[in-house]
Amino acid sequence: MTLKTWFILIPCIIVGVVLTLANLAPVQFSLDPFSDVRPAFAVTVPLIVVIFAAFGLGMVAGSLAAWAGQHRNRVEGRAAKRELKRVQKQQTDTDGLTALPDTRGETAPALPAARSA
């Protein structure tokens, strides 16, 4: 790893450890927005678990959105590869044929001077 990577990685690790140690208190996580007293589904977990779960879900959602946004590029890339293979196959099929050089517009080469003996 490069030095630049370490300058980013080490502070992130330190922040993660401090965040974990500061948020060990249990909290009630509920998916029922209508009842505070007796929610339909609730679980008591450390706050850091909720934070990391939200972070993980955000990463997954962002990754899926980026993947979906690149769909057009992937389709165009596959089409370009197919076209390249088609042109390469056409090129190899015509390699056995030799074309005459295009000599239009060229002047005839000069003949060497006659030698006198």
Q: How large is the radius of gyration?
A: 35 Å
Please give the largest β-sheet. 2 strands, antiparallel
Number of strands: 2
Per DSSP, the total helix count is 3
Secondary-structure element pattern, one letter each: HEEHH
| Overall pLDDT level | 83
Instruction: Provide the structure class.
Output: mainly alpha
With strands numbered from the N-terminus, the spatial order across the biggest sheet is 1-2
Shape: elongated
Report the β-strand fraction as a percent range. Answer: 5-15%
General description of the model:
By secondary structure, the chain is mainly alpha-helical. Helix content is 57%, strand content 9%. The chain has helices spanning 3-22, 47-69, 71-94; strands at 26-30, 42-46. The chain has a two-stranded antiparallel sheet with strand order 1-2. The mean pLDDT is 83.
What's this entry about, in short?
The radius of gyration is 35 Å and the shape is elongated.
What tags apply to this protein structure?
two-stranded antiparallel ribbon, mainly alpha, single chain
Sequence-ordered SSE layout with sheet pairings:
Layout: H1 3-22, E1 26-30, E2 42-46, H2 47-69, H3 71-94
Antiparallel strand pairs: 1-2
